[in-house]
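INTERNAL AUDIT FORM
Audit reference: QA-55
Scope: verify that the stored structure record matches its stored sequence.
Auditor: D.O.
Record contents follow.
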Amino acid sequence: MTDPALTSQLQDLGLTTYQSQAYVAAVEAGQARPNDLVELSDVPQGRIYDVLADLESMGLVELRSGSRGKVVMAPRPETVLEDLRERRVTALNSQIESVTEGLAELYDETATDQGEDGYVTMARRRETAVRHIERAIKRAECWLVVAVPADLYERIADEVTDAIERGVTVRLLISGVAEPPDLTYPADVPVRFRSAADTVVAADRRYGIYGSGHPRATNRSYLITQEATLVHLLQNFVQTVWETSAEVQDAATLPRRYLDPRRLIVDLRDELDEGRQFTVSVDGHWTDSQAAVALDGRIVDYEISGPVETDFGIAPPTIASLTVDTGDGRVTVGGWRATVEDVAASSLRLGRD
């Protein structure tokens, strides 16, 4: 009769009941014929050869042919169980990687499909927030604002660079240290600095992460959302903080992408007033029919106004629109929730005429 405690532990390692009983019996016997192990292990006669073949494939026993038939040998358990452990760990790691990849693809597809009706959740672990930040940056297609502590930027610098190379307009705010850190930034990204700031990453209107930097907070929670309106609010919030922070690096390369006319006008108002010519590619929808539209043309006029004259880089205007000459006529282009303009823009790509 085999030791029930040992057989139970072997079953916890993944062996079946019969495999566990036969292996313990083989170790106890040292060397035995299969029929002898039937009596020692209580494994049925009709199953013993299959069970021993399984144990041999695991490397736990050796089957040798002798003058009186097969003989079962049990090598030192320390050696064979260590080999078994390494194989099981390798196999488990491979399974975890495969499952993780499959679930990540499923998660990404689900999250992408959620669109404007996306989720809102809270995360308490920084590593969880960092994973979402990396994912948000990778999904950015048009406009990305990144306000992070210096140590976190060093972790996501490659993702930011990749976004810039995809043509995404990036604005970067570094914080968390007393003085601007000695870091290297991509040449095409404008960078600003302030010693203390909340952690905010907002990609287009699709993905937002917010973590408060309150000095009295002992544990930081992170809001994570794919709800379009909340991401839009985060975009405006961090843009205001960015505008009022110290400049570290300027960048003004074209073509440049924007989410709406407001930021384009704020950036280029002086040049537009001087008569500089810009082209723009617009993606969005007609405000009357809601049908999708993509158009190209030349900016011939703009309007930006509010109840009082102010800095519309910080304060939101009531109206911010472009007039675009497409060659077939002129259309007015507003932001993503425009109702009075001809087109509500979801993204704009700027170029020189």
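Auditor finding: record pair retrieved intact. The radius of gyration is 32 Å.
Action required: none
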